[in-house]
């Protein structure tokens, strides 16, 4: 059975139907890139997966457990699904280590010493160990985003959601963040990424999902999808970004 | 001691309340005139003048209004005038108001982008002309909400005139209480009187502010 | 016109006593008032329930009536209802309620300007509303409105001069006391006014000192 199973997911904002029935299964350790035009519903889909947005219809299961519709408390959710945002959203008044330790201590009630150990481990993973006592304002965008990844990982989620995590970065800082994601993928972390980095989607992900007007229009392994798109919409999309 | 009906109390408070309104109007009108002059001096004058205006504002903002009232009252006596509580309260509240309005308005003038000054200067307008035709009209728009908001502080400030013996709403309340001894009712009614005067102004100030800066927050 | 300050000298003890009262009233009010404001802001941020509405009414009534009337209402009104209250307690209560209402409103502006991303990050990490308020929202909100908060505390300190009217021996009470003995009203009030001015400056400096430490995170640049 798949780790993540999404079934007939629908979501509207008022009259605007943004997700029109999404079905998707993701295996443990799989890296899935979600691509598509602006407004096609990529972020909304991701935000439904950790219930930042409540969908109108359909189900989401994680490791056979119902995740949506209030079946999981926010605390449980955050230990199953982590999220990294485009705009980092680090807490400005907390140092790097405090940012990473906050949720384990407050939500999970992990003892501080243990939480600190986990936090250091995660910060090491993203190469931010030496900036442990810095405040977010003292870091570059790339460094902030790496801390944000460590912060999400500290809850030891089963899946990590990344919504355009490199879009707010200066071009020269994109590499360091993608590098971290690549190593996470290599470790076997399950990743769902919305991205505009097509090279990254092609090289790192196991599967690419093309969303169009609230549907999954086309999906498959990256090589085939990018070189032999089946639908004119995907060909157009690929042409438009090259 | 006679018995007071609720209506007696209300009627007496209403009569005294007129003086709260009059004193507020005097303080606000007077304060606006002095405040405007101060603002112009603060924005344009030579540095010693600007410095003096700033000192004036800091002094009034950094000391209790009650002390300002006492000083006006006793200061006049030192200067050889025997002034009434009425005059002392008017003078003190006018100066108090002028200092706060000057500070508010300076902020509004400074909030007009400096490019506007430069554009006016390039067109050959002098300081007063730039002020009058370019800066003030824009600053005025910004100034209205906080000015209306401050009028609430002026009304509440007039309550302190009771301490130097001027009979307005608060003083009437204490006097009535001495006679009728119904403190809960009387001071609740006094508070209600101020609330009726102040709350609409507060609401209006908030409405104006929201209109000016768009419907950002609740 | 002659000014004579020497007649004040015998009364330094009274002035010191009054000064101490004004200072401790201010310090206690600052801490308790801000704590009250945090609670009020949290409840009011939570929605439109009955508690939120009641606290909203408290804030509006306090902001739209004079402090002296609030003081009289508490000091004269509560005993009449059978709740005995000393002048000092009435003064402290009035000051705390006053600062609490204004600060709650100031704080609300800071809370409202919290970026949406901050709320979302907190939620994604599983924080509850209270946890998010306490650990994520509060400190940055304070830092954004800190200048207004300083001004408000100074306003309440200066406004506390009015507690002399219910015979609390504060700085203004000392001035009135001396004035009634030496009949040098102007000199006495001038000196006491200057002391208030120094208190206001001192309070501001203390707040700024604390603020620099509390909001160290605002200092950007590389570490
Ligand atoms: N909270 C909301 N309220 C109303 N409409 C929304 C909301 N969030 C998203 N939408 C709308 O839903 C549609 C899909 O938005 P979504 O953010 O999922 O797109 P996206 O594929 O992530 O686009 P992008 O590449 O620009 O990030 C858009 O038309 C957007 O305007
Ligand atoms: Mg998006």
Instruction: Give the strand content of chain A.
Output: 25-35%
Number of strands of chain A: 10
Structural class of chain A: alpha/beta
Described by the principal axes of the CA atoms, the overall outline of chain B is flat
Commentary on this structure:
With 242 residues, chain A is of the alpha/beta class. Chain A is 38% helix and 25% strand. Chain A has helices at 42-49, 74-78, 96-106, 112-125, 141-153, 171-187, 198-204, 222-227, 232-241; strands at residues 4-13, 16-26, 31-36, 57-62, 65-66, 81-84, 159-163, 190-194, 207-212, 215-220. In chain A, the strands form 2 sheets. Chain A has a 6-stranded mixed β-sheet with strand order 6-7-8-3-9-10, sandwiched between helices. Chain A has a 4-stranded antiparallel β-sheet with strand order 2-1-4-5, with helices on one face. In chain A, a hairpin with a 2-residue loop joins strand 4 (57-62) and strand 5 (65-66). In chain A, helix 4 packs across helix 5 and helix 5 (141-153) packs parallel to helix 6 (171-187). The model of chain A has no long low-confidence stretch (mean pLDDT 93). Chain B has 8 helices and no strands. Chain B has helices at residues 6-44, 47-61, 65-78, 85-111, 114-122, 127-157, 169-180, 183-212. In chain B, helix 1 runs antiparallel to helix 2 (47-61), helix 1 crosses helix 4 (85-111) and helix 1 packs antiparallel against helix 6 (127-157). The longest helix of chain B has 39 residues, at 6-44. Chain C is mostly helical. Chain C has one domain: MetI-like (MetI-like fold). Helices cover 76% and strands 0% of the residues of chain C. Chain C has helices at 12-45, 50-63, 67-80, 87-112, 116-124, 129-159, 171-182, 185-214. In chain C, helix 1 (12-45) packs antiparallel against helix 6 (129-159) and helix 4 (87-112) packs across helix 6. The mean pLDDT of chain C is 93. The interface between B and C is large, with 44 and 43 residues. Bound molecules: adenosine-5'-triphosphate and magnesium ion.
């Amino acid at each position: 059975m798949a780790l993540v199973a999404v079934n007939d997911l629908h979501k509207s904002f008022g009259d605007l139907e943004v997700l029109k029935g999404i079905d998707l299964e993701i295996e443990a350790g799989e890296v899935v890139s979600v691509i598509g035009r602006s407004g096609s519903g990529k972020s909304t889909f991701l935000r439904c997966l950790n219930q930042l947005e409540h969908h109108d219809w359909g189900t989401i299961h994680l490791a056979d457990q119902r995740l949506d519709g209030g079946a999981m408390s926010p605390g449980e959710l955050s230990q199953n699904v982590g999220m990294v945002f485009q705009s980092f959203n680090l807490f400005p008044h907390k140092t790097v280590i405090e940012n990473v330790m906050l949720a384990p201590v407050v939500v999970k009630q992990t003892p501080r010493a243990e939480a600190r150990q986990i936090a250091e481990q995660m910060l090491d993973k993203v190469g931010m160990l030496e900036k442990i006592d810095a405040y977010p304002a003292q870091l570059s965008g790339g460094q902030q985003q790496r801390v944000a990844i460590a912060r999400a990982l500290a809850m030891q989620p089963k899946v990590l959601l990344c919504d355009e995590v490199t879009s707010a970065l200066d071009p020269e800082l994109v590499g360091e963040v993608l590098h971290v994601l690549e190593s996470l993928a290599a470790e076997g972390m399950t990743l769902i990424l919305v991205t505009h980095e097509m090279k990254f989607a092609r090289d790192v992900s196991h599967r690419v999902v093309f969303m169009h007007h609230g549907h999954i229009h086309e999906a498959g392994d990256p090589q085939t999808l990018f070189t032999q798109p089946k639908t004119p919409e995907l060909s157009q999309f690929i042409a438009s970004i090259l | 001691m006679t018995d007071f009906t609720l209506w007696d109390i209300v009627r007496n408070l209403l009569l005294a309340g007129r003086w709260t309104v009059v004193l507020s109007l005097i303080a606000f009108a007077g304060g606006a005139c002095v405040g405007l002059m101060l603002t112009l001096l603060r924005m344009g004058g030579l540095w010693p003048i600007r410095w003096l205006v700033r000192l004036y504002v800091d002094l009034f903002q950094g000391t209790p209004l009650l002390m300002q009232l006492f000083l006006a009252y006793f200061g006049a006596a030192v200067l050889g005038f025997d002034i009434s509580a009425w005059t002392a309260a008017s003078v003190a509240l006018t100066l108090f108001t002028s200092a706060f309005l000057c500070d508010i308005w300076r902020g509004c003038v400074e909030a007009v982008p400096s490019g506007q000054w430069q554009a006016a200067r390039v067109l050959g307008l002098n300081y007063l002309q730039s002020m009058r035709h370019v800066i003030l009209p824009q600053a005025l728009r910004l100034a209205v909400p906080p000015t209306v908001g401050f009028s609430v502080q002026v009304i509440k400030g007039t309550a302190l005139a009771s301490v130097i013996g001027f009979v307005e709403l608060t003083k009437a309340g204490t006097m009535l209480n001495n006679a009728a001894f119904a403190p809960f009712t009387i001071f609740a009614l006094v508070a209600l009187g101020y609330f009726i005067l102040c709350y609409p102004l507060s609401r209006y100030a908030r409405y104006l502010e929201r209109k000016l800066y768009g419907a950002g927050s609740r | 016109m002659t000014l004579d300050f020497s007649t004040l000298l015998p009364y330094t003890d009274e002035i010191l006593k009054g000064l101490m009262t004004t200072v401790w009233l201010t310090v206690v009010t600052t801490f308790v008032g801000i704590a009250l404001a945090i609670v009020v802001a949290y409840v009011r941020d939570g929605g439109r329930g009955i508690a939120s509405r009641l606290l909203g009414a408290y804030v509006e009534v306090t902001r739209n009536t004079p402090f002296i009337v609030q003081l009289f209402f508490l000091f004269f009104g509560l005993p009449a209802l059978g709740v005995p209250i000393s002048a000092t307690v009435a003064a402290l209560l009035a000051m705390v309620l006053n600062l609490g209402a204004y600060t709650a409103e100031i704080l609300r502006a800071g809370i409202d300007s919290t970026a949406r991303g901050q709320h979302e990050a907190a939620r994604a990490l599983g924080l509850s509303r209270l946890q998010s308020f306490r650990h994520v929202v509060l400190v940055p909100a304070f830092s954004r409105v800190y200048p207004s908060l300083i001004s408000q505390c100074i306003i309440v300190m200066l406004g506390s001069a009015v507690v002399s009217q219910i015979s609390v021996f504060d700085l203004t009470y000392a001035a009135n006391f001396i004035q009634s003995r030496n009949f040098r009203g102007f000199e006495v009030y001038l000196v006491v006014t200057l002391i208030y001015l120094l208190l206001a400056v001192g309070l501001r400096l203390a707040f700024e000192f604390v603020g620099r430490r509390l909001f160290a995170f605002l200092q950007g640049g590389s570490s």
